[in-house]
Amino acid sequence: MSGVVDGRVVIVTGAGRGIGRAHALAFAAEGAKVVVNDIGAGLDGSATGESPAEQVVAEIVAAGGEAVVNGDDVADWAGAENLIRTAIDTYGRLDVLVNNAGFLRDRMLVGMSEQEWDAVVRVHLKGHFATLRHAAAYWRAEAKAGNPVDARIVNTSSGAGLQGSIGQGNYAAAKAGIAELTIQAAAELKNYGVTVNAIAPAARTRMTVGAGGAMAEAMAAPEEGFDAMAPENISPLVVWLGSVDSKDVSGRVFEVEGGKITVAEGWRHGPAQDKGARWEPKEIGPVVADLLAKAEDPVPVYGA
Ligand SMILES: NC(=O)c1ccc[n+]([C@@H]2O[C@H](COP(=O)([O-])OP(=O)(O)OC[C@H]3O[C@@H](n4cnc5c(N)ncnc54)[C@H](O)[C@@H]3O)[C@@H](O)[C@H]2O)c1
């Protein structure tokens, strides 16, 4: 039986654990050749000496699939380039880039350090751009050489990035940036045969249950029935987005949790009033009150 991504060459970043691991296994099960990237970082990005990507590759190979390890840091410019090169050198091509790697350093904004800000924005936002940039250059060269390109990028945003999340200002800003980067890249890469979409997942991983508490309880696996918080629930959408069947879908962000897929409707022009001339500051109050009365209320910030 043929899989939905048979023979496609796929990179999944941060695929040693959690949601990325589920993606890598799901792509392999549907016939893809997978580059399993993971730096083996701790939950806060610190070095652990672990190599979870090797275990995932071993699992894929044991199940009869094809996979190779890559241990580069996705936010390192040369590392990201080497990651793209690993796919091309090993399998002769690249069809799908799934940007998923990242970590957290949660803190209220008022107490957040410069390092906490920089590390989280770097791994998520630059870690998406760096791989995207090198993959895009490869696909543009292929398209210009007359080789057919039917390529996909699937990014990973977050509910924190779409709605906000108390205590995660660095992460939320980076994930909001990733949602916009997705729209931007979809528009810029269209002519080279590349679609770009993003997901905002929710699943039980060390990232969501690591701290214990109410979140860990809400995410616990049920004793029987559908395990809605299993990370494996996130991957079918991502595998489909990586397939040739998703050709007409680009520049979209999907929230995905359990068996539920939601299209996120993002920034758009709302109610407006045009005076046709410059406003006086004292005129603005009632105008804004009128516009806000007509506008939809924002979705509440998580934890507010
Ligand atoms: N779990 C959720 O409910 C949830 C919700 C929203 C968004 N997300 C996002 O989904 C993605 C996966 O998260 P997860 O919950 O599976 O977390 P996880 O911690 O289980 O897995 C993340 C993996 O990324 C790797 N990694 C970290 N920095 C890296 C780097 N610089 N280069 C390469 N690999 C690196 C880690 O070693 C780890 O194996 C993340 O982008 C996360 O922000 C998760």
TrEMBL record:
Keyword set includes Oxidoreductase: yes
Pfam families per UniProt: adh_short (PF00106)
Coiled-coil segments: none
SMART domains, sorted: PKS_KR (SM00822)
Record-linked InterPro entries: KR_dom, NAD(P)-bd_dom_sf, Peroxisomal_Beta-Oxidation, Sc_DH/Rdtase_CS, SDR_fam
Ketoreductase domain residues: 8-202
Membrane-spanning parts: none
One GO MF term attached to the UniProt entry: oxidoreductase activity
Keywords recorded for this protein, A-Z: Oxidoreductase
Family from the record: Belongs to the short-chain dehydrogenases/reductases (SDR) family.
Name recorded for this polypeptide: NAD(P)-dependent dehydrogenase, short-chain alcohol dehydrogenase family
